[in-house]
Amino acid sequence: MHPVLTIRGLFSKWAPPTSKMARIIEGKIPHGFLGHLLSRLTPPGREVVVGPALGEDACAIDTGGDLLVASSDPITFTEHHVGYYSVNVNANDVATMGARPRWFVATLLFPPGMRKQTLRSIFDEVDRTCVGLGIRMCGGHTEATSAVTKPVIVGTMLGTVSRRQLVRPARVRVGDKVLLTKRLALEGTSIIARERRPDVEQILGRRRAAAARNLLLAPGISVVREARCAVETAPIHAMHDPTEGGLLWGLAELGHVTGLGMEIDLDRVPVFEETRAICDHFKLNPLGLIASGSLLIVASRKGAAKVTRAIEALGIECTEIGEVGGKGLSALRRGRRVRLPDLKGDEIAKAL
User: What is the fold of 169-351?
Assistant: First the structure.
């Protein structure tokens, strides 16, 4: 049976693939099979503080001083603002470990025949986004190849963090509070508003549709500022940026890494009205819509209160949405326990 990723599956033990496993589908490699692949790797040396593992978005290496944190992610799903995306998604992964993103290396692949002005625009966008985050582009590779049909960027972000501020999910304890920054699914909302523009303009009107498209840039998908603020304000037990699969997969991945359950109050999860309208029209669940731009933060009760105030002082929304405890991922609606959907893919696929 094909080991697809589900909410329930993320809270159970990973099973190795069978000989009858179907071919993989487009998107993330199924976690059951990915766990099997990772188990075949030669263990890293003792200087690797955080190595390859399910639920870990970056690695951490002891170089004798501060830890070096590194993450690598490709941009393959869009041609819009590909340079902006490539810097931010990699910087976010480094930031969720408490590190400060500092250096960016990228491989840029373009289809033959692309206009030189397009390449200039992408290079300028990469540089502009790096500078805005205090990062510098310091190397990489650029090539035109028929292996791709649109621009593809594979980025690697390097950052540094003191051992004291390194964020490890192993610190999570029952009773810790779960925070969410900004509002849910701003990335998914923006993508749908761009890719289904005529439909969304009919749903929202031109002015609100334009605002939905612009969510990608304002408030934007970077979580670096709030991540830095969090680690400088209180001891942080875990951070995670919910991307593919939205909030539900993000919470489930945290649950898998920590081995603890979580209870979420769905009435407290902040969602844009534009997101609700788009999801209602396309019959999507906003909880499962790609959600870069939001940051999940887990801290003690006292620490969570301090972090919330500090992040809000930056002008960034921060909402307590739940608590660590119980078994698996559970949810409340109007004070009553409700069943969560068992999603097998990101909801955005239904609209696109």
Answer: Phosphoribosyl-aminoimidazole Synthetase; Chain A, domain 2 (3.90.650)
Q: Which of 344, 176, 167 is nearest to 260 (CA)?
A: 176
pLDDT tens string 310-320:
999 999 999 99
Q: Does domain 47-161 bear CATH number 3.30.1330.10?
A: yes
Q: What is the pTM of this model?
A: 0.88
DSSP secondary structure code for residue 248 in this structure = H
Encoded amino acid at 244, one letter: E
pLDDT over 70 (residue 11): no
CA 160 – CA 54 distance, rounded (Å): 22
SS3 38: helix
Query: What does the block give as tokens for 351?
Result: 């609209």
What's the start-to-end Cα distance of the chain, in Å?
27
Reported residue count of the chain is 352
- C-alpha atoms less than 13 angstroms from C-alpha of 318 in its C-beta half-sphere: 26
Pick the closest to residue 345 from 306, 289, 282, 300 (CA basis).
289
* Rg of the chain (C-alpha set): 20
Please state, in angstroms and rounded to a whole number, the distance separating the CA atoms of residues 167 and 153: 27
- Do strands 329-333 and 262-265 pair parallel, antiparallel, or not at all (unpaired)? parallel
Q: Check residue 51 and give its pLDDT.
A: 85
